[in-house]
Amino acid sequence: MIRNDREYRNFTIERREQAEDAEPDFKVRGYASTFEPYTLYDDGETKIFEQIDEHAFDDADMTDVIFLYNHTGMVYARQKNGTLSLSTDTHGLFTEADLSSTSSSRELYEAIRSGLIDQMSFAFTVADDDYDKKTHTRTIHRIAKVYDVSAVSIPANPGTDIAAVSARDYANGVIDAERAERLAKEKALELAKAKYKFMEVNND
Length: 204
Description:
It is built from two helices and ten strands. The protein has one domain. The longest helix has 42 residues. The chain is of the alpha+beta class. Strands 1, 2, 3, 4, 5, 6, 7, 8, 9 and 10 form a ten-stranded mixed β-sheet that branches. The radius of gyration is 23 Å and the shape is elongated.
């Protein structure tokens, strides 16, 4: 299944304790993605899982990813000037951002260091994925492009968080497709039963 719309996923910023008299390096680190399966959507009735393949980033376009706040507005770091780096390891997509460039980026660093902001999200598009109806698991095999990594203030609010919205949209599409398939099978069964009864009557 090929999908071209931009999607968003959350991850946790890694906080590091520093001595009070130490000069801050203004760097934040964390995994924008891991290769462990996780719950993509759960409304209490339907649960859908997702897993990113360990080779999904091999051919992804990550030529100039930027670091944002809530996926909008000012750029706080970017690959082009060396203040943002992305790399993959056995755990996932590792991110390191240097927020020392401007007074605004340093303010964001302080908000992260103090724990006021402790979640991030990354924006990407999918080149290849599939869905296992038995396990209700979506597997992303290839990511086409990573657009940004973003510190986010409310990562899990369905009303305000774009990550939750995109997950819900995907889940609704899966649920609708499964419902349509089930109805089609039920209709085919009804037609088969009607045909069988018709043949019985005619044979009598």
